[in-house]
Design brief:
Oligomer: homodimer
Helix content of chain A: 25-40%
Number of helices of chain A: 14
Largest interface: A-B, 102 and 101 residues
CATH topology of the largest domain in chain A: Aminopeptidase
Largest sheet of chain A: 9 strands, mixed
CATH architecture of the largest domain in chain A: 3-Layer(aba) Sandwich
Radius of gyration of chain A: 23 Å
CATH superfamily of the largest domain in chain A: Zn peptidases
Shape of chain A: globular
Chain lengths: 466, 466
């Protein structure tokens, strides 16, 4: 059974139009979890999804309250003897700024050149919708699923998943499963089907530098008062050296180098550096020359300013020493780096760098450990085969530079193996203007999911089964 | 004649209420020259002032067009044999942000605790209004002035006076004079009457760092793409060392050290460093330890970030590599530093610091040379005496850290001696929220101006007269 059940294909062909309408309807809800003014929209998306899950045939559908945004839970557990899989996606999206760079309104999605364009088209509402429609096809054609599924759709993945540890802890009994399939990753460059074998962790911080209680005249006070914006720039400059090596003491202590086999797998990927540079659109790549682009992007830690602000930002000139300046600084972590421990080192280092004329505070806005999956896990093997069968191409294994905080929670808190199977093309502009999803990936990926569930229902998990 | 004409005092006492009403009326016009949306307000202020000049008794009153904001010109030239003085003030004001730190609306001025509070109360509409009312008192009591005055009120001083060189050149014939009195400075700490013997020059720039064409996902691209905000922070950090010494090659070449007499004058000023620190409200002062606070603030050059921005500035977290980052960076210049020459050195240095993964551009937004006046000039001697007589306190000589671009133009372009006499208290919050003017300084300063005009009309300029 490594070809799709023809009844599913017939059903999927017949329902294509309605499926796209439903996909676009979900994208129209501006479920931006980071912005308080969109709290109601996030809930509206949760309720829309819950209604769909009920319609499709899931049971115990619930919009579960958390301290922030709701989790949508549902299950169907009547496949006696078959494995139980938790399916995780998230229905919240990134903010849309800089809004002026969008070709059209981010929450008025449309299809052009074979792509669905709109915020969340790829990350992750599009992929969530694939799971809805895969289950819908199975229920519609058979009245049942080939395995047991527990649905966990999160509403705050894009704002660091604060509520998830508590929710997972409180819902342990209904999260009993053999594995977690997370669909929030994508394909390799060139739209090659891929399974992600590791994710970087994240530590997200904010540095606040405060000087005088109000802006000062830079002529009158310049030369005598420490400038918070200059002080912040110096602090940020000291965080990395020119080669990009992070200078926080002990930062690399728990970075276990990737082994030779993993380096070889990365080296074997059909990566075209010139095409990558062209697509990214910068004059030159940067980073530690001791590593390849793919190693730097997935197997090495980073430090980036995500935002910086202070003082006068208008047209023309205003001659002030700003009262305060701020930066959002995040680090991507790998191997055994612990974001909580690194935050303490980071904060101490930043405080050491602060000049005496200003006050500096460092806040932790988010943290998640790095995660990885064995490429020999039976769900990974089945997913590889399902991808090959549906996309007609040999899938590759890759390391993602991104972070999915909940992956680490499933792994650490619940002890569940996590498998990362996603379908977006690398040029999807996730987190950026003009986010898009290749419609063919969406359509074929629904078939991949159906086939994967059928394979796991038929073959089980073999000896690795939990 | 070193006491005020009693007829003037009688008139000024009788017109106090109406004078305050008129002062507040002028402050209500939001004449922010840096912001295009206030262009009409700047013109409205010019027209208000022109109408006042006409009512008071000036001739040839004109709202003169320039490429940007108008210059208000007027004169009265019937004091045969008496000196001719150009009076310069500006009627434009700084922007008001951060608006949230104002106790009340910046353009709804009011009086509290003996101060007029509102944008422009001190810098410079309040001081301009003092000149209007001094002339008004003289015309009202005598029907004439004791000397010849040419009024030049500028509308873009707070946005670097771009139009002034051209306007001054075109108006050479009607700027023939013996001296220029600029009232755009203030008193010494502790509200001690002062004459400013030097002003710093200014070079105002903007650094624009551009990376990818749109924001990128910091997980996917972090480690391989130069981050424009990190690059900008590093550039800024390299512009000064930890002691505040500017690192631009050749920056100090034309800084002629202040001589021993000038250093002694500064050292003799009743400066209370603890009170200064308390008033500024920072944990510690900063700056080159080889100089005193007053030397650093008036006789040494500086470099300050006036504003910085790039990437995500909202609440929570957004995981991007920003597409671009920007900073407004200005330098205060002293002695013979030439802003145009320094700009070229600055730009070259910034370009040298730019890493290969980003594009960096440096714009010049404004430039003005430093200026200084001999403390022996007859107008300086007369002003000293007028201040002493009206305020009942010995005036001091000080060096201002600020810049008045037009001072240098009067000096360099027209060859006129420039005398800086102003009346604001140092805690006036110029350029900052809750700008204010001590009402007693405003009232007494009007008497100082009347007395100064009477002294110059009676005594002339002696042998130094031009």
């Amino acid at each position: 059974m490594t070809t799709l059940d023809p009844a599913l294909e017939t059903h999927l062909l017949a329902t294509r139009e309605a499926r796209l309408d439903s996909y676009l309807e979900l994208l129209r809800i501006p479920s931006i979890s980071a912005l308080p003014e969109h709290t109601g929209d996030v809930r509206r998306a949760a309720e829309w999804i819950a209604a769909e899950l009920t319609r499709i045939g899931f049971e115990h559908v619930e919009v579960c309250e958390t301290p922030r945004h709701p989790v949508v839970y549902a299950d169907w557990l009547h496949a006696v003897g078959a494995p139980t899989v938790v399916v995780y996606c998230h229905y919240d999206v990134q903010p849309v700024d800089p809004i002026e760079l969008w070709a059209t309104a981010p929450f008025e999605p449309f299809v052009r050149d074979g792509r669905v364009i709109g915020r969340g088209a790829a990350d992750d509402k599009g992929q969530l919708h694939m799971h809805l429609r895969a289950a819908d096809a199975l229920f519609a054609t058979r009245g049942r699923l080939p395995l047991n599924l527990r649905i966990v759709f999160e509403g705050e993945e894009e704002s660091t998943s604060e509520s998830m540890p508590g929710w997972l802890e409180a819902n342990r009994p209904r999260l009993a499963a053999d594995a977690v399939v997370i669909t929030d990753t994508g394909f390799f460059e060139g739209n090659i089907p891929a399974i992600t074998e590791s994710l970087r962790g994240i530590l997200y911080t904010q540095i606040d530098v405060t000087g005088p209680p109000a802006d000062l005249h830079s002529g009158t006070y310049g030369g005598n008062v420490e400038n918070p914006a200059n002080a912040l720039a110096r602090i940020i400059a000291e965080l990395k050296d020119r080669a990009g090596i992070v200078q926080v003491p002990g930062f690399y202590d728990d970075v276990i180098p990737v082994d030779a086999a993993a380096r070889a797998r990365l080296a074997a990927l059909p990566f075209d550096e010139a095409a990558y540079l062209e697509r990214v659109g910068v004059p030159a790549l940067a980073g530690d020359a001791a590593y390849t682009v793919l190693e730097r992007g997935g197997a090495r830690p980073t430090l980036d300013v995500n935002g910086i602000w202070g003082g006068f930002q208008g047209g023309g000139s205003k001659t002030i020493i700003p009262a305060h300046a701020h930066a959002k600084v995040s680090m991507r972590l790998v191997a055994r780096q612990d974001p909580v421990a690194i935050f303490e080192r980071f904060r101490a280092f930043v405080n050491d760098l602060a000049p005496p004329g200003v006050r500096v505070e460092v806040q932790r806005l988010g943290a998640g450990r790095p995660t990885s999956t064995s490429i020999d896990h039976p769900v990974v093997r089945a997913a590889t085969e399902a991808l090959r069968a549906t996309f007609g191409q040999e899938p590759v294994f890759m390391r993602s530079g991104g972070s999915i905080p909940v992956a680490e929670m499933f792994e650490q808190q619940l002890g569940l193996p996590v498998i990362l199977v996603g379908f977006t093309n690398p040029d999807d502009n996730a987190h950026a203007p003009n986010e898009s999803m290749v419609l063919a990936n969406y359509e074929t990926g629904i078939r991949t999911i159906c086939l994967l569930w059928d394979m796991l229902g038929r073959d089980g998990l073999g000896e690795s089964s939990g």
